[in-house]
Design a protein that fits this description.
Two copies of one chain form a homodimer.
Chain A: H1 3-6, H2 16-32, E1 95-100, H3 105-116, E2 126-131, H4 137-149, E3 155-161, H5 164-167, E4 173-176, H6 188-209, E5 215-218, H7 223-232, E6 242-244, H8 247-261, E7 268-269, E8 272-274, E9 282-284, E10 289-290, E11 293-294, H9 295-298, H10 302-324, H11 329-344, E12 353-358, E13 371-377, E14 385-386, H12 394-413
Helix pairs in contact in A: 3-11, 6-7, 8-10
Amino acid sequence: MAVAELSPCTNTRLHTSQLSSLSTRLSDHRRRHSFRPLPRARNAGIFCSVAPNQIQAPVAAPTETPKEKADCFGVFCVTYDLKAEEETKSWKKLINISVSGAAGMISNHLLFKLASGEVFGPDQPIALKLLGSERSIQALEGVAMELEDSLFPLLRAVSIGIDPYEVFQDAEWALLIGAKPRGPGMERADLLDLNGQIFAEQGKALNAVASRNVKVLVVGNPCNTNALICLKNAPNIPAKNFHALTRLDENRAKCQLAHKAGVFYDKVSNVTIWGNHSTTQVPDFLNAKIDGLPVKEVIKDHKWLEEEFTEKVQNRGGVLIKKWGRSSAASTSVSIVDAIRSLVTPTPEGDWFSSGVYTNGNPYGIAEDIVFSMPCRSKGDGDYELVKDVIFDDYLLKRITKTEAELLAEKRCVGHLIGEGVAFCDLPEDTMLPGEM
Amino acid sequence: MAVAELSPCTNTRLHTSQLSSLSTRLSDHRRRHSFRPLPRARNAGIFCSVAPNQIQAPVAAPTETPKEKADCFGVFCVTYDLKAEEETKSWKKLINISVSGAAGMISNHLLFKLASGEVFGPDQPIALKLLGSERSIQALEGVAMELEDSLFPLLRAVSIGIDPYEVFQDAEWALLIGAKPRGPGMERADLLDLNGQIFAEQGKALNAVASRNVKVLVVGNPCNTNALICLKNAPNIPAKNFHALTRLDENRAKCQLAHKAGVFYDKVSNVTIWGNHSTTQVPDFLNAKIDGLPVKEVIKDHKWLEEEFTEKVQNRGGVLIKKWGRSSAASTSVSIVDAIRSLVTPTPEGDWFSSGVYTNGNPYGIAEDIVFSMPCRSKGDGDYELVKDVIFDDYLLKRITKTEAELLAEKRCVGHLIGEGVAFCDLPEDTMLPGEM
């Protein structure tokens, strides 16, 4: 990666104080013009740090008035050379991780996990590039300040901004968490359109400026179709690199199976979530195993498996929001960590994990050209392959067909955003998961 | 540790549904009686899991109707034997960690860090025992559900409750995060009294039921004097085991020094926070080092060090709350992790860390019998020793004297809670840190 590509620092950028006033002006503008969408200035609101290979001289005896880059965020403006120091010279090359919705609650958990080394390991320095909105830019500065105060040795750069064309620059991972929540009276079709536009724009931005092999994980709902929109707008990035998060569903399914079987959750394996991250999703108990045995041999209450299990998995978020008063930000961020780790560490022998991925020659006969959650294995190189040795029965197939039909209907709703002309929306029912409204 | 001591499971306890109705009844009661304090039922609201050494038989082929313990929390009711399995038999013995204020935002970050293995290491299974209030018990169930859904292999037991005598049972670590916030018009003296009563009760509970060598970290404010009250009410636990958290202040000080010097924060070492976790605290730049050199040799702007540095450290929380709209839960929880890790891993050669500890024969001439933040080193055995080779100048001593005077005044305010008769409160000014009101 060339120096010029790695850092956006050579562009004209605004200082914190200027940004604050920009942010205020934008708010004023918004109020006066009653929420007309604003054109986004390319250079608005980016802070950046300096890449390690841009160093001119190693830091030895700092001078009285150190050279400060006015467009960096706080302490992350510092120049350094990881290869020059004993403790850090065995470290891998810095990777860029872009996160949207970075001022939200899920990110507030996730960013600190990324920075701690829990996800990419203790020898992998990272740069966090945080995407917010005009409205959240102050909060984003707060997040960056807390990251500073945490003194994470592996966190070597933090930048914040509101323009995906800046923030996604050279991203090797893009974690797309931000999405608009559904407003009162809003139909799922409206939400698909509203968020679809965001993901179309972000797809274009990734296509233009991200690493050519960027891995993209879409968390913002409706995540499968958002991921489809995103990849369709990023034709120069392999479609295989896009994922929609169904890992929280998988984790919840494992927990419910463990609970029912009376075993600890580490005994449950081979759980697939098939299809959409919605109420049509299919947690698969046919292929799942407990202590190496098929679930149906361990849990003899098949009525529970067929009639209660799926609902228990899906209602989890709703129950939680009632008890806790907030959505499940902590466990969602844990499942994002799990999803990333599953791609950067080899999958344990005989097991697999679920991810919403692009259907393109899948062995299950599922419709092509949608984003569908399926069982995957990885060598730990960031890539994955689909698992072939799964079985189906009528019950499982019938439900897979239903979630497939829903994803095809969602795709028709967003035809205008994926280059297929006019949208035609005939979604039969509301399938948002409880707690994710 | 005997089996009978380890698990509170043999006591009479309430089911989730009963607890919910209890909780509702308590709320009704509260409303009718306009916030009179309630007597706490000893057995109200505890969920528990089973200790590994209570297992009768290893889990092999689960039966159709597994034996469920009705008083456990969800999946954590499972019986298992860590020594019976290849993956876990090299693990250490399970440790009990009790956390108060467990439904709050700091805990919402911290609990997931504890459960991930980030704090105590990848071979240390843990049990989390969560203390909430009548008001927060539903939220606490939500937290426990999110912990279930996170499938942390090391997290082997979770229990929740509202009675410290239950929740602190056999605790080897007690992280006391919960405290009442200061209400409108409330003086610091009122807050000292209000929270002091909580910490007096919790000290008594620890004294009665916790491990005889429990390590106690007080985060709830005013944390130094709360820690003093707590240890005075726990005469059977070594006073040396009690800590008041000043690590966030230390981390912030390191970040500000790094920023000013234009170096990355990993270059800053030997930073002491002296005294109280309040605006009288003394971030020590005389003994601190940057890249091994005294700070004053690196940062030549001594006016900044004397006149701006401390304020910058202290205002951090206030600036953050303005930008982010919330207090610094994430970085506080990171600093709690740092504080614990500093006690369970050997301190790097030549460095030290700050902790608010009991003064009892300190080498600095600081008044005895208070909780004062000082420089500590640890062999990683949970214990610490004070650092002797520090230097003082008039500027540093004058400020240490001021924070010492404040802590002595706070102690006089809580005389009634530490067995010293009538309280006499003459606190001169409000010294709560910005953002911690």
